[in-house]
Design brief:
The protein has a seven-stranded mixed β-sheet, with helices on both faces. The protein has 13 helices and 13 strands. By secondary structure, the chain is α/β, with parallel strands linked by helices. It starts with 5 loop residues before the first helix and ends with a helix.
Length: about 375
Amino acid sequence: MPDLSWEAWRDAEASAIREGNRWREMTALEGLGPRFVLPDGRKVVSFASNDYLGLTSHPSVIDAAREAAAHWGTGAGASRLVVGSRDIHAHLEAALASWRGAESALVLPSGYQANLAVLAAFGQGARIVSDETNHASIIDGARLARAEVAVYRHADVGHAEDLVRSASGRVIVVSDTVFSMDGDVAPVDHLSKMCARRGALLVLDDAHAVFDVEPLDPDALCLRVGTLSKALGSQGGYITGPHRWVEMVVNRARSFIFTTALAPNCAAAALASVEICRSEEGASLRQALRRNIDALRPGHPTPIIPVVLGSEQAALDASRRLLEEGLLVPAIRPPTVPEGTSRLRVALSAAHEPSDVEHLAQVLPSP
């Protein structure tokens, strides 16, 4: 008889993960990005963070968080609909809506929850047409929606349109704007034109979008999901779109209704970051980021540069060699990426010095 105990199951699962070179452990870093100290005392430059503009350590962002914590405390204490809202949430939502050119915005405790909220709020009874390399939060949101899910080939608008055309009812087309493991950009212009033509709701996840993307067809119905936790240097997520549609998220989305509101200090930090992004300083930070990208991969459209090496062991070995050089570049393995495509994922920031990028370019392996 097989051993059916939980301990036996746990040990077998752990052994399988280890044998496949997919075991993961967390590392605590000390310091402000991108320069950190490892637990063993080694100093490293991190190319692992999504802090694309370096705003996690910006003095104005830190001051805003500190002042908000002193004014409102360290937590909201309840969900938004059970009097967890504060004025700072409304101020942030107004700024996000204006920045993104939308009628309305809604903030949530994470970008993951924002994707769950949109897809679960509108997906039930619909077909969700999803890019095959979309983020896990989109995949999970589609599952929670209890919708029919149809997956289209990566960035293939024609295939997506075939799946939209064959649906018998309402359709949601959902895509990342920037794909987090490949660093490429979705054809949002063509997707929006197709959705306008077919009457589909378009949902775009802008989590990794730092630079301007193609404009959308003005006739397309679109909701956009974003994060406060990457380029904006804080914590949380948001949704922007037409006011009546955002209202529906408030009233239908379980991941919004049944969770404590975003902490006021995170909201204040994000608001300060939005203000920086809309200023001349923000433009300068994006230019610095662009220079760093071009120094490593000229013309690449995003700060995410993958170096695909194939096997899990090859990616782990390359990551260890870079760490010996004082460079923290993570090895990305299945199930995050498909079998046989384990890779290094380089994430560049405006906070990297040109010398940091030059050092990385000298020792980074070729795919």
